[in-house]
Amino acid sequence: MLTLPNLLTLSRILAVPLLVLFLWWPDWQLGYALGFVLYCAAAITDYFDGMLARSQGTVSKLGQFLDPIADKIMVAAVILILTAKGGLTGPIVGDAHVIAGLIILMREIIVSGLREFLGGIQVSVPVSKLAKWKTTLQLIALGTLILAGVFHEIEPIRWAGLGALWVAAVLTCVTGYDYLRIGLRHMDT
After folding, report:
1. CB under 8 Å to 85, separation ≥6 — which residues?
2. Which H helix or E strand runs over 15?
3. Is residue 117 within 8 Å of residue 174, measured between CB atoms?
4. In 24-87, which ranges are continuous DSSP H helix?
5. What is the pTM of this model?
6. What b/e sequence results for 108-133 when a residue is b if at least 16 CB atoms lie within 10 Å of its CB, and e otherwise?
7. Helix axes 61-84, 98-120, angle to 10 degrees
């Protein structure tokens, strides 16, 4: 149970409270810098835990359970803290960038519920390549927005992060629809 891949996944979950602490004060540039480093390290574990588990033949039920939860906890925590501290405000639409974060959170909740339902009827829905790209883009977008907190004076960093967040939100809708379409085939009418 406590294989290296599972420990990497657990470390991602355990890093979230410290990450939130670093991001709590938007004007604390050192905190955002530390948060950025911690966030990047945690995001990298998302790649390595799965790769190591497959290459070592140590894929476990615990890892399959915890990995998507770790991703969702980290993404949700960063979206919430950035929203609360004004990190999702930007040009043209101001606070409306929060909608991209809401879309991402809503999709994650819907897909989690759908997976739970399908698991109860013994139907497995594999993660698509597009969903992996969606997660990668979410991680990049949120990392860029954290980095924007380090460099307040360089607005294009924030704009890039917000733009990437909107693209991730669109991919989130597309992949969410794909999962929903598959799930609907297995529901009673």
Report:
1. 23, 24, 25, 26
2. helix 4-23
3. no
4. 29-56, 61-84
5. 0.88
6. beebeebbeebeeeeeebeeeeebee
7. 160
Q: How far apart are CA 159 and CA 183, in angstroms?
A: 36
Interatomic CA distance for residues 31 and 6, integer angstroms? 28
Q: Look up tokens 């379409």; give the residue.
A: 181
- Residue pointed to by tokens 């997660």: 135
Per-residue pLDDT of the chain (189 residues; tens, 9 = 90+): 788 878 888 899 999 999 999 999 988 999 999 999 999 999 998 888 877 777 877 777 777 778 888 889 999 999 999 999 988 887 777 788 999 999 999 998 988 888 888 777 777 776 778 888 998 999 999 999 999 999 988 889 999 999 999 999 999 999 888 888 877 787 764
d(CA 145, CA 161): 5
Residue in the structure block whose two tokens are 């693209």: 167
Distance CA 83, CA 55 (A): 38
